[in-house]
Structure formats: C-alpha cells, structure tokens
Amino acid sequence: MTKQIPLSALELAVIVQNSDAGDAIKRTVETAQHIEQLGYKRVWLAEHHNMEHIASSATAVLIGHVAGHTKSIRVGSGGIMLPNHSPLVIAEQFGTLESLYPHRIDLGLGRAPGTDQLTAMALRRNNMHAAYQFPSAVQELQQYLSDENVDSKVRAFPGEGLDIPIWILGSSTDSAHLAAKMGLPYAFAAHFAPAQFQAAVAIYKREFRPSAQLQHPYIMACVNVIAGETDEEAEQLSTSLYRMFIGILTNQRQPLQPPVPNLNRYWNPEIQYAVNQMTACTFVGDKESLKQKLSVFIANNGIDELMVTSYIYDQEKKLRSFSILKEALS
C-alpha cells in the first residue's frame, strides 16, 4: 500500500513555444488553482535569472500573485537564493507576503546563485563571497523574523514576530549538514541533481537536532513527474522535458517544445547518458505505473513529502497529469 504523504508542486513559470512571460505566469496561476482543488499542500516558485524562457526571476512578486489568486494552498519559494539578497530585504518581503496571506507562506532558501557567474556578479555586486556566508545569513534572517529582535536597532517591518516556516534547499550534501544543525525542514532538488540525494538524506537524518521550528527531521524530495492516460501517452509527453534538458546541456536553450514521436534526432549517446544522469528521479507513466514506481521511491528514501515539477507543453495535459498523480497516490 502506498504511504500517504503530502503532495506539492514546484513551478518555474516556464515559457512554452510561441508564448511569452505573461502567458507563462497565467499558466502557473491556473496550475496552482487546479492543484489546490485537488488537495495539494503547497506550490513553490523558484528563483532563476538571465534565463530567457523562465519567468520566475522576481520570485516574491510571483508568490504574491499566485497567493492572491488562490485561497488555501501554501505558496512559497523553492527557493529564494539568499546570497543574492540582503536578509533584511527578504524578511520584509516575506513578512509582507505573510501579512497579506496569513499562515500560507513558506520561505525556502538556497545558496546557489540560480544563474551563471556573470549574472551572479550583477546581482551580488561586490559580495561574491556571499555563498560562504549562507549559514550566518540564514541566522540573520531568522533573527529579523523573531520576537527577540524587538530591542535591535535594525528591525523588519512587516516580518518581525511572524510565523514563516523556513526551509533549507539542497542539490548536494552541503546544505544537508546545515539543515540538520539548524533543525529546519530539508527539501532536495532531485528533479535535476539526483546524484547525492540519498547521501544527503542520510546526513540530514543522522545529524538532525530539534529546534523551535521542528522537533523531528522532515524531508521533501522534488522529482519530475509526467503522467498520462496511458504509458505511451506519458512517454510522448515526456519528450518535451528531455528536450529541455538536452538544451541545457548543449547550451541551446529554447522555450518548452511540443512533444515529438521520439528523441533519436535530438541526442547522441553521450548527451543521452548525461540527460539520463540528471533525470534519474523522473517518473513517467499512467496511474498504475506511477503508483508502483513512486511507492517504491517513497518507501526506499523515507521522505515525508513529495514535490513534483511537470514540464508538459500542453496546459490541459499538464493539469491532467497533476490529477492522475493525485489519483495514483491516494
């Protein structure tokens, strides 16, 4: 029997072929509204920069827009790349979001730039060592959001004293140590960096120390899921996802492309191997196939919540994929 765990979604507001950022954001809102009706727990938006076909760069703005067009689903960042920002600014932004949408905002934090090094320099200006200061920046952010900051000369308004859950994000083992040490929930990006997933989970569970926010380890894994009415339909829909990864690896990025009958003309064995390594935590199939595959994944890794991202070209097929997944895990 499938272990019943919460189901959530990650959105990047990906621009599809013959579309634009406005349409991508509209599709993201539709997705959030749809999965809210299905009973998904949360939808997160990811910070990326200098990526022509992703519309989630102003992440806090987009979180507010999605939260304003939904009613109950939690909306948050997956994540905010904290070294790109002043902790005070993030405390104020998410304090504002929490004030607008009480008890619905999550703050997931990552240390990567979410972009290339040249763009990171444009974002961070003279603070290119910010990633090394990530642990202290998280603590500074926690301080701004705490009641104990009342006597400080620098305070976050709104933000101070608000209950905004902080998560640590990771795509390697580095942040597993930090999440465990700080007693914070841990979200792993297995949807594009699965190689160190199991090692990171083991570190986090072994080193976890209870905190005011969290008494026991809590692990959320993000994976790719492409669901169809049949295995064959799902396999064809998944070609859009694989073409996206091919574009990343060959530096020939495009808007999300329509599905194709097969991928033979788009990759050689070397590229295919690299794509398969990056997408090892990708689950494609109909309801029964997904139930079987994901039950094994959940049981083997002892995760507490599953977050999925679904790169599907056709919006109706994408929404249906989230429905099929919900049915598979119910």
UniProtKB/TrEMBL annotation:
Gene3D superfamilies listed in its UniProt record: Luciferase-like domain
Sequence ranges assigned to domain Luciferase-like in this UniProt record: 20-258
Pfam families the record matches: Bac_luciferase
Family: To bacterial alkanal monooxygenase alpha and beta chains.
The protein's name: LLM class flavin-dependent oxidoreductase
Organism: Olivibacter ginsenosidimutans
Source taxonomy: Bacteria, Pseudomonadati, Bacteroidota, Sphingobacteriia, Sphingobacteriales
